[in-house]
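User: What would this chain look like folded?
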Amino acid sequence: SVPDLSTLGTILRLRTVYVGMVILSAGLSGLHGVYAILPAYLVTEYSLSSQYVNILLTVSRIAGLLFLLRTGAIINRFGKRRTIIFVLLFSSFFTALVGFVQGVMVSIVVVAQASLIAVMFPAVLSSIADIGESRYQNITYAVIITVAVTVGGGVVPALLGFFGDMGFGWAAFLVLACFMASAVILLMVTPGFGKNQAGQNG
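Assistant: Here's the prediction, encoded as structure tokens.
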């Protein structure tokens, strides 16, 4: 059944809900948002062949899958919070570089940018699953994911494409990197997010 407004009101009064939205949106933006626009950007701005761009993106995704296989060990070792923080900082750094590097560094940055992002999603999603009262958690989960997918898979690619068409693609990647870094700051000032876990806390 459709949740009533009082349920949504209860959910939207929780600070951790907004933290979850921002962090998951940042992660999806760095993964799917960048991926959606990167092929056209690399071909247009760096005059790379579409075949070479496809190879680069394939390698970056394979690297991500390899790291994903170690996600459980990484989260158990460092905790959910520290895993999210490190991955977002790492990815935001290379996202910012996309519009500035030249030569062989282009390939390195493209592969590195997405290589670790997948590792943070199990940590983020399990943290989101713990938000709020148990009777509302499925609704909370759905609300956060809906917003994050809309932002990361819809709004961000559209904005990256718009600024790219205007000749300011480099600035769009820089702004996206700042958004990803801001998610880290928000997490750091919200100690309750991602604390319920086995193993170490971040």
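The chain has nine helices and no strands. If you want, I can go into more detail on any region.
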